[in-house]
Amino acid sequence: MTDTLVGIQRLIRRRLRGGLTGPRLRGAEVELLRLIESRPGIGVSEAARELHLAGNSVSTLVNQLVRAEYLVRETDPADRRAARLRLTGAAEKRLEDWHRRRAELVGGRLARLDGADHDALRAALPALRRLADLLHEDPEADDGPAGPEAAPAGAGVPGGPWTEGTPS
Fold first, then answer.
1. What is the reported pLDDT for 43?
2. Which residue has the higher pLDDT, 10 or 143?
3. Model-level pTM greater than 0.85?
4. 55, 103, 130, 149: which has the fewest C-beta neighbours closer than 10 Å?
């Protein structure tokens, strides 16, 4: 399952890179921009927690994106030592373009699938959202084993519950 999801994401990125204007951004830079897009004014420390990165790593990304004129760092009025992050117009335009082009690419391919495939994908969405929520949780909160012994019977086995013959 994870190989398939990662493969889909990789193919989408590769297909969309060709039409990009401006310098190519690294994955962590895009993740930070997308986080700030969804939470304008987020602080560096909070962004680091959300992205599960070290604070100094996020600070480095912020500095790079400020230099590239994709981010604005504003002083937090409640704590003059802290910064609040906002997208620039250039970043907003780039993300809007990426979202539009991604929707066109994926929508065009989805349109080529039959009704049974649409139904299967629609039925899988709630479980995938729950999985995403669980993966987003603090890893320290995990109760059970994390190794292969924690996988459901048949997971990763050809014909198992996750894929058709492709381990995770």
1. 93
2. 10
3. no
4. 149
